[in-house]
Amino acid sequence: MAKRDYYEVLGVDRHASEAEIKRAFRQLALRWHPDRNPGDKEAEARFKEINEAYEVLRDPQKRAAYDQFGHRAFEPGGGAEARGGFDFTSFADAFEDLFADFMGGRRRQSATRGADLRFNLTITLEEAFTGKRAQIRIPTAVPCEACSGTGSEGAADPVPCPTCRGLGRVRAQQGFFTIERTCPRCQGSGRIVRDPCRECGGSGRVQREKVLAVNIPAGVEDGTRIRLAGEGEAGIRGGPPGDLYIFVTVAPHRVFRREGSDIWCRVPIPMTTAALGGTVEVPTIEGTRVRVQIPEGTQTGRQIRLKGKGMTPLHGGARGDMFVELVVETPVNLTKKQKQLLREFEKASAEQQGHHPESEGFFAKVRELWSELRE
Ligand SMILES: [Zn+2]
Ligand SMILES: [Zn+2]
């Protein structure tokens, strides 16, 4: 019989979030749990099926492999990674973890997942444009070398717990009932470390500064979160590691302002250039210069678009544009001679209309306003 699609099994969308997948699994697992459906072969098969689907979809790496290769990803010799078959043994762990949440936090405490870490990284806009290979140093917990992360001196194998004889549970008589509960000595793992490692005190991990090389993709935006699976703190006593999240901040730029994949730049130009026309040199994000033509009669606020001179988009495709926003600058600290020339210019302009379209238009409107008020 053909294997059902894992997303279909859990009744979730292909783009479902981790939380949605977990929720769907919980509901189905509770419904088809063999304890609730004793002797029901179909329920048993369904339960196995949803466990298998969840085991893949809860793990971002396995999920990605499944999205790409389907069930082939986990067949011997199939898929990209050729994992050599699929490990079913961890089902029980996934399931117990999940149900521990319901049942008042009865967690298996022997091996615990390491904490997630957050690292704040600030880069320049230029680095966001080109992308960056950053070396980061994070103080974190790493597996103890002395005991290979087991927490046991000399990495000696843990021994079966003498209290529960390796079962992880102990029974106690209470009135008429026999109550089974988690073994308090081994916390349900069924194994204990006889001689705790002196280096790490038995936790299986030590504090170190870890150096990691991280690829920050070109086009990264302010506030982007990059997840590095398994690069968080080491787990306790051989538990799985947490994840590392890198929060990227793009520092404000002295000259450029970013808007999505476009770049804006305010460029002041002399009053004379604005009136007569000319050129101005502007910097670009890739570190070059571009000569921009200023048309005769340019006003403040005029925008000139430089196509394809913006940012690299994060997910490929064409570059954004650069917008040069012109600001006409009024000259200051004039010499006597300059003032004289401007007065002559003023006199010459007064005799003729059409030199200042904006103010002429504005004052025409004001005159209208005043005449309306008088009526
Ligand atoms: Zn025990
Ligand atoms: Zn150790």
The name CATH uses for the topology of the largest domain is Helix Hairpins
Structural class: alpha+beta
Instruction: Summarize model confidence as the mean pLDDT.
Output: 84
User: In what range is the share of β-strand residues?
Assistant: 25-35%
How many DSSP helices?
Answer: 9
How many independent structural domains? 4
Poorly predicted parts:
77-109
| The CATH H-level homologous superfamily of the largest domain | DnaJ domain
User: Which geometry do the CA atoms define?
Assistant: elongated
Q: State the share of residues found in helices, binned by percent.
A: 25-40%
Distance between the termini: 91 Å
The value of Rg in angstroms is 35 Å
Which small-molecule species are bound to the chains here?
zinc ion
Task: Give an account of the 3D structure.
This protein is α+β, with helices and mostly antiparallel strands. The protein has four domains: 6-102, DnaJ domain (Helix Hairpins), CATH 1.10.287.110; 109-148 and 200-252, Sandwich (HSP40/DNAj peptide-binding domain); 256-332, HSP40/DNAj peptide-binding domain (Sandwich), CATH 2.60.260.20; 342-375. The protein contains nine helices and 15 strands. It has helices at 6-10, 18-32, 41-57, 60-69, 91-102, 125-130, 271-276, 336-350, 357-374, and strands at 117-123, 132-143, 159-160, 169-174, 177-182, 191-192, 205-216, 225-228, 244-250, 256-259, 262-270, 278-283, 289-294, 303-306, 322-329. The strands form six sheets. It has a four-stranded mixed β-sheet with strand order 10-11-15-14. The protein has a three-stranded mixed β-sheet with strand order 1-9-8. Helix 2 packs antiparallel against helix 3 (41-57). It starts with 5 loop residues before the first helix and ends with a helix. Residues 161, 163-164, 168, 183, 185-186, 190 line the site of one zinc ion.
